[in-house]
Amino acid sequence: MASAPDTSKSFKLERHGGYLLRRINSTKVIAASSHLLFRASILATVVLILLFTLHYPPLLLYHSGAAASSAAHSNHRSLLSSAVTYGGAAWEREVRRSATPRSPSGLTVLVTGAAGFVGTHCSLALKKRGDGVVGLDNFNSYYNPSLKRARQSLLSRHGVLVLDADINDTPLLTKLFDVVPFSHVLHLAAQAGVRYAMRNPQSYVASNVAGLVALFEIAAKHADPQPAVVWASSSSVYGLNTATPFSELHRTDRPASLYAATKKAGEAIAHTYNHIYGLSITGLRFFTVYGPWGRPDMAYFSFTNDIISGKPITLFRMQDGAAVQRDFTYIDDVVKGCLGALDTAKPSTGSGSKKRGPAQLRVYNLGNTSPVPVAKMVGILEELLGKKAKKNVVTLPQNGDVPYTHANVSLAEKDFGYRPTTDLATGLKKFVKWYVEYYGVKTGNNVHSKMKKMEEKEAEEEASA
């Protein structure tokens, strides 16, 4: 008797076969979908790269002369550092060429803020005496970058390479210290200005605090050998101090502006890196530096421009009517102080070093020791320009400015022979001469002729003496 077919088994096989078929079809669909997704991802990546390239074209680290004088740069351009590549044989050759001193005993110095006012003058002085110099500047737009580009061009003509990058750009700093064993760093890069801090406070934190830490981090943990660091603090750290002349022993815990607070924070940070990592660090407290190639935001510079153009200037006075005074310090004197600090800086000792003793930690005032009322400074400019200023005298507001500054420089004189020699009248004359030549000033007062007559008179006085 024939047995009946096992329908349950057939059903199971059919169900199992259907399951396999559905699974195979699902696998094919998933595979196809994955392949399509992969292609879409590749396409999206290519599109993003193209969009990024269009919006952020490659940024060259070095521009010869003033070729990029019209470029605008952000204070925080380091955010794009991942998209910028450094190095290459030609780039490294340029860096080494600029960094190589003319003599075996010469210093090898990285100057940050090299296209700034003090940075340009210090870089030129270092190169002139035979040291190796590499500069770095981010060319931000705090004031017209064209002046910084002109300074860069000046440095280039004297053999100093100025890299176009931000101090917070850690990959660049790392690469630089890999390429060159810098013996010293002159750290002048900072966000300057007292009143601007009320409008853009974050720029001060980014440059004066974060930038300083970024530099110290590389110098302490990556550089071999560790460089000695000389950096720009400020007379602003004395804040509301009323004891005069200002001494390095006076209290600096009452800053009157955010700018001053960031510089005071910098001095505390310097102490920490000196203590923990053995960095040799020297802080220099500058007192109202002025002179040729100066900063347009400084009073003497903007007053000169306004007097020539016939615009009114604003002079401040105290609540009691007393004059606001500044210890104006000529740029050449400040440069001598910076080089003196570099020359007397002892080597860094490295972290945890007991054999070589504690690392050097110093702070000095660099001023002129002769406070002058700002109104007197204006009077000197009026005489030099042959034109009266239109004055608007107002009470000093609570904007971070202090009523007076007066430097005691006896410590700097003792340790590296710092002696300021340029009085305000002489320094302003040199500034005005540069100003009228640089900007091609042409006025009815014939400033050029007046300056020439003043020089001839001085030459006669020197000859008769």
TrEMBL record:
Keyword presence, Iron-sulfur = no
Name the keywords, alphabetized: Isomerase, Membrane, NAD, Transmembrane, Transmembrane helix
Q: Name one GO biological process term.
A: galacturonate biosynthetic process
A GO molecular function term, named singly, is: UDP-glucuronate 4-epimerase activity
Q: Which GO terms describe its cellular component?
A: Golgi cisterna membrane
Q: Enumerate the spans annotated as NAD-dependent epimerase/dehydratase domain.
A: 109-345
**According to the lineage, what is the superkingdom?**
Eukaryota
Q: What class of enzyme is it?
A: isomerase
Pfam name, any one: Epimerase
Similarity-based family: Belongs to the NAD(P)-dependent epimerase/dehydratase family.
State the name under which the record lists this protein. UDP-glucuronate 4-epimerase
- Origin organism is Musa acuminata subsp. malaccensis
